[in-house]
Specification:
The complex is a heterodimer of chains A (116) and B (107).
Chain A lengths: L2 E4 L3 E3 L5 E8 L7 E7 L5 E7 L16 E6 L4 E6 L8 E8 L3 E4 L3 E5 L2
Chain B lengths: L3 E4 L2 E4 L5 E7 L7 E6 L6 E5 L3 E2 L7 E6 L2 E6 L9 E6 L6 E2 L3 E5 L1
Parallel strand pairs in B: 2-11
Antiparallel strand pairs in B: 1-3, 3-8, 4-5, 4-9, 5-6, 7-8, 9-10, 9-11
The chains are: A mainly beta (116), B mainly beta (107).
């Protein structure tokens, strides 16, 4: 069965970086895009970026351009999302999600808390 | 960026009610529209893709329609597990964008 398993919760200080992983299983890794979506406390869903695991192409939302880096390791079917220069406003649950026509499967989410 | 506007922002309904949520795109997006259900403390669940196609396992009480700029999600007979927040999402172009959400609460 398709699974996206994300790394555990993180607590970071302002200005630091965080790297969240999303390990895919149960399907051909390079056949589906992986997206990153976040949800801040009490807020809606916000799309951040995507990676095409077959070629590494990564469209980003302009809001995160220069701060977010999405990479993949095809040998382990894992996608990584690194967000730098963290501010308090980056406190959120970060989700990875698979897509071919819109998203279908989602990871369980990773809480990133930014606190001094 | 394509703006997605949902209405209403919230609604109160009873078990068994029929509810409809609308979503409007700021420009035409063909049928590149998805609906996602979100419950507190849980990962979002994708319900609908291509404006009207149900993902596998989604109950048939959910239906959706639309094309271009105007879309709807209907739940024909609300069940207790359907009380949640629903988001529309366009994937016609980057950045993908979500509506602000519609919270469905128990009356």
């Amino acid at each position: 069965q398709v699974q996206l398993v994300q790394s555990g919760a993180e607590v970071k200080k302002p200005g630091a970086s965080v790297k969240v992983s999303c390990k895919a299983s149960g399907y051909t890794f390079t056949s589906y895009y992986i997206h990153w979506v976040r949800q801040a406390p009490g807020q809606g869903l916000e799309w951040m970026a995507m990676i095409d695991p077959s070629d590494g192409r990564t469209p980003y939302a302009q809001k995160f351009q220069g701060r977010v880096t999405i990479t993949r390791d095809t040998s382990t079917s894992t996608v990584y999302m690194e967000l730098s220069s963290l501010g308090y406003e980056d406190t959120a649950v970060y989700y990875c999600a698979r897509s071919v026509s819109g998203t279908d499967y989602w990871g369980q989410g990773t809480l990133v808390s930014v606190s001094s | 960026d394509i703006q997605m506007t949902q209405s209403p922002s919230s609604l109160s309904a009873s078990v068994g009610d029929r509810i409809t949520i609308t979503c409007r795109a700021s420009q035409g997006i063909s049928n590149y529209l998805a609906w996602v259900q979100e419950k507190p403390g849980k990962a979002p669940k994708s319900l609908i893709y291509a404006a009207s196609s149900l993902h596998s396992g989604v109950p048939s009480r959910f239906s959706a329609s639309g094309y271009g700029t105007d879309f709807t999600l209907t739940v024909s007979s609300l069940q207790p597990e359907d009380f949640a927040t629903y988001y529309c999402q366009q994937y016609d172009g980057f950045p993908w964008t979500f509506g602000q959400g519609t919270k469905v609460e128990i009356k």
